[in-house]
Amino acid sequence: MDLADFFAMDKLSQHDEEQLLESAMQLQQMMMLYEAGIREIKTKLDILNDESRISGKPSPIDSIKSRIKTPRSIIGKLKRRGYPISLQSMMENLNDIGGIRVICPFIEDIYTVADMLMRQDDLTLVDRKDYIENPKPNGYRSLHLILEVPIFLSDRTQPVHIELQLRTIAMDFWASLEHQLRYKSDVKVPAHISDDLKACADVIAATDEEMQRIAKELHVL
Questions:
Q1: In a domain, 198, yes or no
Q2: CB atoms < 10 A from the CB of 7, how many?
Q3: Separation CA 6–CA 21 (nearest Å)
């Protein structure tokens, strides 16, 4: 029984329904692991945030968001990448089932938060992609970390991978609107509009740099 069967219950025999229920429970258990992984990292981030607040220093974190991919989204990504549609394949081949987005005031804060997290010995860095130093062709900027988090269960320790995206308020503003304009519209985005979106990203990046310069001059950073 694989993930695709979750969308065909009305066509299943009683035996298949029992198998489906078992698979559904397995999926629920796996989703619980990712939820636990997100909670673990969010707790660490909250503690770092509280530490900054108590010390009287400006916090390097403005806000924290999280999400878990839906089964349909997971199946779609496995199909696009040519992987088998199964729970095991999901665990082995996808690193972004559970995701956290950390919004920071300034560019420097992004690296500060990443460094603070990586000093914690129960987190393992699996992958790091710096789209701030090396922006994507469309202008997207963010720091992506894949972190392995140990989840301590009653009978075992289960590691899970959580994707952490760190970006500034300005980067998040652009990325959210760009995604809405590009993927939520029924109209194919023409080349000149892509160029316009890239130009906006460059302006926002320059503004980020200038705001950071001002913050340093005012000794906020």
A1: no
A2: 11
A3: 9
Place of tokens 């992004």: 110
Q: Distance of alpha carbon 148 from its chain centroid, rounded?
A: 13
Structural domain contains residue 207: no
CATH assignment of the domain containing 37: 3.30.460.10
**Amino acid letter, residue 194:** S
Helices (H) and strands (E) in the chain, counts: 6, 5
**Residue 30, φ and ψ in degrees, nearest 5:** -65, -40
**pLDDT value at 5 more than 80:** no
The number of domains in the chain is 1
Residues listed for the chain: 221
Q: How many CB atoms lie within 10 A of CB 203?
A: 13
pLDDT (tens digit, 9 = 90+) per residue, 29-77? 889 999 999 999 999 999 999 998 898 888 999 999 999 998 889 889 9
Q: Which domain holds residue 71?
A: 3-169
9 pLDDT higher than 60: no
pTM: 0.85
Based on the number of CB atoms within 10 Å of its own CB, is 121 exposed (0-12), middle (13-18) or buried (19 or more)? exposed
Residue 215 in any domain: the answer is no
Instruction: Name the percent of the chain lying above pLDDT 90.
Output: 67
Distance separating alpha carbons of residues 172 and 139, to the nearest angstrom: 12
| Amino acid at position 38, single letter | I
